[in-house]
Amino acid sequence: MARALTSKASLGRGVRERRRSGQNHSSLGLLTPATVHYGQAAALLEKRQRVLDAAYAAHPERFVKKHPIVQSLPDAVWINRPQPLLEASVESPLGV
Asked: What is the pTM of this model?
């Protein structure tokens, strides 16, 4: 029985760690929280834009609407907006 609890606990830790470091979030410009936290976002977004530029240059017919642009990083993202901002009715940068 103790073995089953240990494996459940380790599974939970693994899921949480993957969630924190390995999952791209749409509210973070399709970056991982770790990438944003450790200041690697700008370099990664520039690299993505170079790849999109090269793809567009090689095959512009594949991009029907316009030249592709990477999603930018928002100024702020909250799980729960801080209370003073809620009381002041400050508009969220994400419109939430």
From this structure: 0.59
Q: Which residues, in sequence order, are CB contacts of 94 under 8 Å at separation 6+?
A: 27, 74, 77
Q: Are 70 and 29 in contact (CB under 8 A)?
A: yes
Per domain, the residue ranges of the chain are: 2-88
Q: Which element (helix H / strand E) includes 79?
A: none
Helix spans in 22-40 (H): 33-37
pLDDT tens-digit readout, 42-67: 999 999 999 999 999 999 999 998 99
The whole-angstrom separation of Cα 90 and Cα 96 is: 10
Token couple for 2: 């103790």
Q: For residue range 68-80, list pLDDT tens digits in order.
A: 999 888 888 777 7
On whether the CB atoms of residues 45 and 29 are closer than 8 A, the answer is yes
